[in-house]
Every structure is written in structure tokens, then in C-alpha cells.
Amino acid sequence: MYRIESCACKNQDWKHKSGRNETRAQPSLEPELQSSTDTMIKLSLKTAFSTLGKVQIQASHLLIEKDQVFNQFLLTNKGRLSTKLKLAFNLSFRRANCELDWGRGLTRRGFAGLTNGVTFPQRSNCRVILYQDAHHGPKFEPIIGLGTDKCYKPRKLWEDVFRAINGAKIFIYIAGWSFNPKTVLVRDPQTDIPNAQGIEIGELLKRKADEGVAVRVMIWDDETSSHWIKNQGVMRTHDEQALDYFKQTKVVCRLCPRLHHSFPTLFAHHQKTISMDCNTAELYNIAGEDSCGDREIISFLGGLDLCDGRYDTEEHSLFQTLNSESHAHDFYQINFAGATLRRGGPREPWHDAHACVSGEAARDVLDNFEQRWMKQCNSSHLVPIKIGTCNKDRCHGIRNWNVQVFRSIDHVSVQALPDRSHTAEQSIHDAYVAAIRRAERFIYIENQYFIGGCHLWEQDQHSTCTNLIPVEIALKIAS
Prior knowledge:
Elements: E1 2-9, E2 14-18, E3 21-33, E4 39-46, E5 51-58, E6 68-75, E7 81-95, E8 123-132, H1 157-167, E9 171-176, H2 201-210, E10 214-220, H3 239-245, E11 252-256, E12 273-279, H4 280-284, E13 295-302, E14 353-358, H5 360-376, E15 401-403, E16 408-410, E17 424-426, H6 427-438, H7 469-478
Parallel strand pairs: 9-10, 10-11
Antiparallel strand pairs: 1-7, 2-3, 3-4, 4-5, 6-7, 8-14, 8-15, 9-12, 12-13, 13-14, 16-17
Helix pairs in contact: 6-7
GO cellular component, one term: plasma membrane
GO molecular function: phospholipase D activity
Keywords: Lipid metabolism, Repeat
């Protein structure tokens, strides 16, 4: 079992100038399974729009496990040698079980997070709250010890979101794939938040904006929806509805397209983040936990948009909640034709995971929002935010998380990218790979989308999906 360890090109960027245009190209490594007996290593030199050429090397030539220097002419897409393009590079292999991080876990050998191709470093002294679904019932009490005499007490996501937004004094920045201003966050009749039940998120944000809080909402612009013909779009993300809702208000709402030179309607912004200033005592002490009480930045992020159909509990009832406050005004079903509230359902259940982070990682989430806003919106709408992190001495014992923020994003949607990449950051994928390699006893992955890599299939290798996660799992199992 072998793994590609490194591939370093002498010229990191290849530039081709034609008139006033300049094109950058970068090398990418693509292992290709040509037969059951051998593996071909393919090194491609690509621009943002095309492949300039390729080099193919038999993996069996590299099994001596030493660095080897190659200096070869590139093959064109038609399989011919190009006399104008020549690539010099080093390629080395190392056995998977000899990799320093193989099976070492995330706590051994001083793991400091990912360092290559990432914008945000690993942060220490952070706090994390983990959530399952938008809400949970009173019987949801998983027995999870915290290493002391205390047990983990689950929190209610959308109620915490309401508390945090309601308590903000300076700013509230929201980014989402979908956003419905009519969404009600607090629906439980037994809630302990006064005057919160039934309030729509749009009304809450307008009220905070009227109080002087800078409220910014950035939603993916679904190209299939239309304001003029009242078309809600294929994905029904309420983007045009939200834009109309906040007109003539102090809430600044912007729609951001996910631009692509070939397929402008097939790509989306999938980030779901909420950042705001918060009095941590007001949020954290509800669960009887210690907090220093400083006003600081907190950020929610994960898989749940603030829109219809997302409110659910661990019971995921299909019928019993249709006449309750939970879903009487929020029936969502896109999988069964003809299923409606009037016909008695069934509703579509919704499960997702989410988190709330504080500390320097929360600022990283905010920075990501600001980078996107400055790239695709008007940067003058952003306000200066001069809020420090919690005092480490006073927060000792509750700030024991190391957190690193990852993302999948390109230069079209964001201003700043890691130096290694000129066009895109894929640190989410890289983080999966690093975690799988370091796994010691088990791997648990929960994700709405799970896409493999076709470059290792016997068929359809020409497709451009080259994710490594499935093959990394297979290598880990086989080892």
C-alpha cells in the first residue's frame, strides 16, 4: 500500500501571456488506475479554464521510495508530445504505514491543525457548543460524561440563536444558502425565553436594526428565481422574497450569485453562518455554566439554514406535529407529490448538525463573511468591529477547545485565499483526509453530501470529480 507524499514543481506557476491577458497554470496530481496490475500517476498542468498538458508515470517505477527528479515534455489532450511545454518536478512515494501521522489521532505529536492551503490556522482557548437539529424535546438527555461530576446537557439551537440575536448590540451578520424571513425560531410552548414564541426572524432582525445594530444578510442568488414574474425558483430558497422583505428597512440584504464561466446556474453558496457580538453570560449561564460575562464575538455555523422545513426535533415526527405550533405554519415536503398539510402530510423530516463557537475561531468565521461581502457586495456597509476575545484567566476551564475553520471557496467569491492557491481553497476536503489518516479506532462521518473520486474507478475516469475521501477510507480499512 503506497501513498503519494509530495510533488513539488520547480516553477509553481506557469504564465502564458497573449496580448493583455495573462493565464496562470498550476500542477495537480491525479493517480489513475489503468488496470488491475498497475497504477499510472498523472500530473496535469491546468489553468482555471483548461488543461494545458499531462505527464504519465508508472507507479511501479517509484517503488524504490526515493525522491526522483523528472523533466518531461507534456502530453496534449490528443496524446501527442508538446515541444513547447516541459515540466520539471520531484515525485516521491512513502508507504502509508510509514507516514508520521498515520493512526496518531488528533491529540498526539502536538497536532497543530492543517497548515497548507488554509486561510485560518488552528485556534486554541475556544469554546464550542454542539447541536443536533434545530430543537429537541424534554426527553432528549444523552448520558455523556464530561470527565468531571457533570454530564453533557444538550442545548436548543434555534432558541440559542434567538437569544444571541436578541442580545446583540453592535452587529449581526448572516450568510445562508436559503433564508426565509417568515421563519419562527422559538415555537416550544414550554420555552423559558420571555416574549419570544412566534416571533419571525425577519421581524426580529428589523427590530435590532432599528435599535442601531448593523444587520447584514447575504443569501445565495438562485438564478432560476425571478422577482419580476414571481417565480420562486427551482430550489425555493426565498432569495427574492427576502430581498423584497427588507427593502425600505435598515437591514441590508444582498443576493450573491455563485458565478461560473460555463454553468452560471449550477453552482451555489452553501455556507450557513451567523456572527454577532454577545454577552456570553446571557447565553451560557442559562445552562448553569460559568462565563466571564465579557461581550465578545460568537459564530454559529453548520448545516441548518434559517428557513422553512428546518425546524425539527430528535423524534422527526411525520404526522403528529402537523397541528402543533411546530409545523402548523411550516409544512415542508418536496419528495412526495401531492403531500400537503390539508391532506394530512407526511411532512419531510429534517436532521442536521450545527455548532456555536467563541474565541478566535468565531472571529475567523466573521472574517470569512467580511471577505465574501467585500468581494461581492458593497464594503462600505461593513462596520468596524473592535471586540476582543474573552479574558483567558477569567475563562479558565471553559475554553479548552482547539478549533480550525475550513471552507470550500474560490477567488470569484472571496478576496483572500491561501498563498498556495490562486483560484480555490479546498480545506474542508483536506481536513477530512487528514482526520481519516490520523484515525486510530473509528471513523464517523455525518454529511448531507458524500461524493467520491472517479479518477480511481475502472470506468468514467474522465469525469472531473477527484475527491479522495472514499479511497482514504478504503486505505485506512485495508491497513
